[in-house]
Amino acid sequence: MRRSTLTLLTAVAMAAAVGCSSPPAASEGNPEVRELHGRVAELTAAVEELEYQNRELEAQVAELDARRRELESRNADLARRLSPEDRVVDLVNPNFPPAVGGEPGWEYHRTLTADLDGDGQEERVSVTTNAFWMPDEREFAWDDGHPWHVYVEEPDGTRTYLFSNWVQLGQLEVILDREGPGLFIVYKRGGGMVVYRATYEGPGQFRTVLAFEIPLSDQATWANPEMFSRDPEV
User: Which residues form the signal peptide (predicted)?
Assistant: First the structure.
């Protein structure tokens, strides 16, 4: 629409300019000629303003188009990174024997209950590590690293371990996925968080994927899922 208006005004201005230049010099004092000159000047100014606005709009369109292409590229990359099929992980290291929260040496014990497998009975999810009580038993004392365990316990006591491994300079939390059956295992450390999603279908039947990573600084270094297949440093 702006291009059509711009074209029309340019044509009118040119026609008026031609019409004003054709009479002899003696007609310059004619009021109608002066009026036409004034209108030509106004139209020329309007054309210049529209040309300026058009250049600004074209620049804005180009900028928005560049942003669109960038977002599309980032979304495609994110979709590839979040593909569950490509990001299945095994967080159970056989070098760390299963531990039970609340038993001696495993006083740090957090739980939640939910029907994870849809069988109509609630299972209990436990998170435990061997952090030890301070003398006043009001808070735990922490080393640079600890073995951690996350397991699901059926009403009959059957346990399925989703996570058994060493965590260096960090902690684990478990959050129920309210959007569907499953759990989020949140690995928190100084540089940010790594979030895993585990689905539980019954004793010994589960699947864990690396859901996403949340860096908190440009210097954050992330725990590679492969780290959970190695022994801790001595």
Answer: 1-26
DSSP for 32-65, written as a single string:
HHHHHHHHHHHHHHHHHHHHHHHHHHHHHHHHHH
Is residue 185 within 8 Å of 163, Cβ to Cβ? yes
pLDDT over 60 at 25, yes or no: no
100 vs 5, higher pLDDT: 100
Task: State how far the Cα of 53 lies from the Cα of 48, in Å rounded to an integer.
Answer: 9
pLDDT for 212 equals 81
* Residue 126 burial class via C-beta count within 10 angstroms: exposed 0-12, middle 13-18, buried 19 and up: buried
- What pLDDT shows up at residue 156? 94
Owner of token pair 């859901």:
211
Distance (Å, whole) CA 8 – CA 4: 6
Among 193, 223, 222, which Cα is nearest to 91's? 223
Full 3-state SS string of 135-184: CCCCCEECCCEEEEEEEEECCCCCEEEEEEEEEECEEEEEEECCCCCCEE
